[in-house]
Specification:
binds flavin mononucleotide, 8-stranded parallel beta barrel, 12 strands, 16 helices, two-stranded antiparallel ribbon, about 450 residues, alpha/beta, binds iron/sulfur cluster
Length: about 450
């Protein structure tokens, strides 16, 4: 029998060559004004070249008010369209599909950027989150409809750019989670209260995108199957349960989703997403860039810096996550897979071929989406092809890539994986060198 990891996955209108997807990884590698960069193209190509079947783009803002950090490539205007075929065509050369994630941050805006200075981000119902304490204000129904329109227009532009699919971003505390989650949404109108009301915006977005892009476009939905909003903050509301999420997945399929992508957590980063260490030392450096972002950010920053408190915070983070890292969301994916007839993709900690193979064979999910183990080893799939269970220098789940992302370029920052710090930095910086790029000859000095 062949290896299930290398069996093509047939969605309704899209076939992906194997079962390993590159999960979304946002980072500050584009231009401040939202123009895409060659570094973005190089970044995505390294995973396509390494053998993943599909890449899900990072969070792609549909409006500057909805971005998470500056330096992300946007899809907010028609003149952004021509950039994206550069990415799509590049990954297609490696027989890799490209799925774009049009996104809106809502209140979870880590660093708003100069265009948003003094403007409160919009959310389902104004209340600061217990982790970062981001300020926000309640959206009107007209604003909800406006943002729906922005997400639909973003999806249409992505299709015009030639992407192979769209991923609706309803996970990890961003705008659609802010409506779905019973821990966050306190509205009293038709967008709040019951599960049906909280899911209304997500389902409207799925239906509206489907109507706009037509029946032939692959459309998947990523969401948090359990909120566990109280996992690290016992005084907070717990949020959505798995039972509620099973129902949301069923409704999403009925509304037109071709696949469900399962993660967890009502905010980001969360002990379960990305599952791993809380790198307090790195956060003490980069989190300072967020000091004006939220009312609890100074508290957090001091906790990350304090020699007395930070080890306790780190230990509490690990305890909140629990002992499992690889496949942490598999029990949730399995429950959802039993309730829907479309394929289910699971993210969270996957690194060893044996774990992925067993999960698919057991029927827990149809494919896995990987972020950090691919940052560490973009050729992960080629290791599997050669029969290895994992690479020689695997991802350590230290989460320094996540901590560094606030200020530094995307990349692996675990020095222990490299021969030297210089080697690590050379690897991080390599995305800024276009393929085949040669250093220009130094200008000759006139005699
Ligand atoms: C630096 C970083 C940026 C991320 N950005 C996004 C994002 O823009 N959209 C998204 O849906 N998930 C994002 N994620 C979550 C990943 O896609 C993935 O679901 C999560 O890290 C768990 O997978 P892993 O254990 O393989 O890293 C990000 C994760 C990291 C570490
Ligand atoms: S910094 Fe490197 S080793 Fe650490 S979690 Fe990120 S990719 Fe993995």
């Amino acid at each position: 029998m062949g290896d299930v990891i290398f069996e093509p996955l047939h969605f309704r209108t899209l076939t992906v060559k194997n079962r390993v997807f590159r999960s979304s990884i946002s980072g500050r590698i584009d231009h401040y004004d939202g123009t895409g960069s060659q570094a973005r193209v190089n970044w995505e190509e390294r995973f396509a070249r390494g053998g993943v079947g599909a890449i899900v783009s990072s969070h792609v803002p549909v409006h500057v008010r909805g971005r998470v950090l500056p330096n992300y490539a946007f899809i907010d205007r028609d003149d952004r369209i021509p950039f994206w075929p550069r990415v799509v065509d590049t990954v297609h050369k490696h027989d890799c599909a490209f799925i774009l994630q049009p996104s809106y941050s809502g209140r979870q805006q880590d660093i708003a950027g100069v265009e948003n200075e003094g403007i409160r981000p919009m959310t389902s119902s104004a209340k600061v989150d217990a982790f970062h304490g981001f300020p926000n204000r309640t959206m009107t129904v007209a604003e909800i409809q406006e943002v729906t329109g922005l997400l639909v227009a973003g999806a249409w532009r992505a299709v015009a750019a030639g992407v192979d699919g769209i991923e609706v971003h309803a996970s990890s505390g961003y705008l659609l989670t802010q409506f779905l989650s019973s821990a966050i949404n306190r509205r009293k109108d038709e967008y709040g209260g019951s599960l049906e009301n909280r899911a209304r915006l997500l389902l409207e977005v799925i239906r509206a995108i489907r109507e706009e892009v037509g029946p032939d476009v692959h459309l998947q939905m990523k969401f948090s199957a359990v909120d566990r909003n109280d996992v690290f903050l016992p005084w907070a509301r717990p949020g959505n349960t798995l039972e509620e999420s099973v129902q949301i997945a069923r409704w999403s399929e009925e509304a037109g989703a071709d696949a469900i992508h399962v993660t967890s957590g009502a905010w980001f980063p969360h002990p379960m997403n990305p599952p791993g260490d809380l790198p307090v030392g790195d956060l003490a450096v980069t989190y300072a860039s967020m000091l004006s972002s939220g009312s609890h950010v100074v508290r957090n920053w001091i906790s990350f810096r304090s020699r007395l408190v930070s080890p306790l915070v780190r230990r509490a983070w690990a305890r909140a996550r629990g002992p499992v890292i690889e496949g942490i969301n598999l029990p949730f994916a399995r429950a959802i897979k039993q309730a829907v007839s479309v394929p289910v993709i699971c993210t969270g900690g996957f690194q060893r071929a044996s774990v992925i193979r067993e999960a698919i064979e057991r029927g827990d999910c149809d494919a896995v989406a990987i972020a950090r183990p691919l940052i560490a080893n973009p050729d992960l799939v080629q290791w599997y092809e050669r029969g290895a269970d994992q690479p020689d220098r695997p991802c350590t789940y230290c989460n320094k890539c996540m901590a560094r992302v606030l200020t530094e370029p995307l990349g692996c920052y675990d020095e222990s994986r490299y021969a030297s710090r210089d080697e690590m930095l050379a690897e991080v910086m390599s995305i800024f060198r276009p393929d085949g790029f040669e250093e220009p000859e130094p200008a000759k000095q006139a005699d």
